[in-house]
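Good day; I would like, with your permission, to put a structural problem before you. What I wish to show you is a protein chain and, alongside it, a tokenised description of its three-dimensional fold. I would ask you to consider whether the tokens describe a fold that such a sequence might reasonably adopt. You will find the record immediately after this paragraph:
***
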Amino acid sequence: MSASPHISLPDVTICAVTSRAVKPTVRALSLSMEQIDFADALLITHEEPDFPVPENLRIKVTGEIDSREAYSLYVQTRLPEVIQTSFVLLVQWDGYVLNAAHWSSDFIKYDYIGACWPQFKAPVSVGNGGFSLRSKRLLEACRDPEFQPGHPEDISICHINRSLLEQKYAIKFAPEALACRFSFERSQPAEETFGFHGVFNMLDIVGAEKLASICDELESGLLGLRELCDLIAGTLNRDSDVISALRKQFIAELLRNHALRPAAWRFVGRYFWNRYCGGRHAPYG
């Protein structure tokens, strides 16, 4: 990856919303802030962190956001109260800026841009909310009484409420080609992107030792079943002591949190059958 320049985005706030994986989330914010001067940098969480954070990172204490559903509700209903700039770059612990050199002024010509979803066809393939750029206009439009907040919030915005946002507020979702330059998640990029999302991509981005260190800071149960399957699958064609230990860690986490759920084992079986035994594609559910 080529060296990244330091750029200024005076109309953009970088923001994360969470009460879990707080230390890895601050890491994601910090890595992004090292490359970009944002108008504001904000972590919305339930208490002041007990570890050092960047000097220019503001902490907003709110009620506990301890589930994905609580996150979705906050982003759709309360985020516009705290964002004062024209745009917000929303990040999570497993998604951040990779290379500021790939920022484009075309990104802010749209109200929403995130990585493409391969399970959907254009023009509704954009996009993933875990690393996404959104306009303040979009945030405010989501508070319309006709808007139906749902989980996950990116599906709610980009699919369930899309017609309302487009027709009533003229909200513009980025086209697929531009989104592929902005970020990647479930599909591997054809070229370097501005950012990414997905813990299952981090093995290639940060390496096994760093990923193991980051995962040690996660609360048990934070990783979902699909994420664990992706992580396990990503280690199967690699061989080292660190990779082996990491694979055992992921398998143990799967057993600890999903072993008693028959539906989980049906998912695991279907996932690996589809991936390695000639199935058309891995499940997205």
